[in-house]
Amino acid sequence: MAERRVPEHVAVIMDGNGRWAKRRLLPRGAGHRAGMNRMIGLAEHVFDCGIKYCTLFALSTENLSRPREELEGLYSLFREYFPANTARLKEKRIRLRVIGDLSLLPEDIRALIAAGEADTADGTRGTLALAIAYGGRQDILHAVNEAVRRGESVTMQDFSALLFTKDMPDPDLLIRTGKEVRISNFLLWQAAYSELYFTDVLFPDFSDKEFDKALEAYGKRERRYGKV
Ligand code: IPE
Ligand code: IPE
Ligand code: MG
Hints:
The protein has helices spanning 17-23, 28-48, 68-91, 107-119, 136-150, 156-162, 208-219, and strands at residues 9-13, 53-60, 94-99, 126-134, 173-176, 195-198.
């Protein structure tokens, strides 16, 4: 019998905003706005479920090559929503951290991120990691270069501590919304033994109830880690 449990760390690839808008004959930006609205509600629900760590994939390194207009739209939404969302996290005692190559982002966005992280630093209820300008291969390469710079061979544990997700356990459950069945350069090292859950539901429609379905599926999985 599979044992029922709540994951300690859930990671979500939030995909499908563009298609959500397209179905409604709206511009892609409307889908990103709907996704942004859903994101904070989902984050709050995750911690209400007793999960301690949540990583949300919001923008990949590869997404930075999208048309300038779409990127500008995403940055505008970020500027509009981020301060209020950070205040909500602070109120709920959730610590925010942003992972990714922040040097690729506009200066003012970086300043907002730094302020949001500082403002929520004493949150003890859980950690929300927002992956922006994040790539799994870039994460690994960055850690390799750091290990080389130190000039010492590293253990797996040391290596994990060199990744952007340092201090966080590996994700137990990795969810992808929006129908595609791929990892798209998300947490490549960290997801080695994550349970994977794919749903056709587009991210703006990924309700608390849909999230609970993923938790239920996770509860029925038997994690063997290669053992018998
Ligand atoms: C995910 O939605 C959000 C980002 C990657 C910024 P998409 O924008 O990829 O939406 P689809 O896949 O085109 O529907
Ligand atoms: C993955 O979605 C990245 C995020 C959700 C942030 P993409 O839409 O970029 O992935 P592909 O292009 O379908 O692989
Ligand atoms: Mg997509």
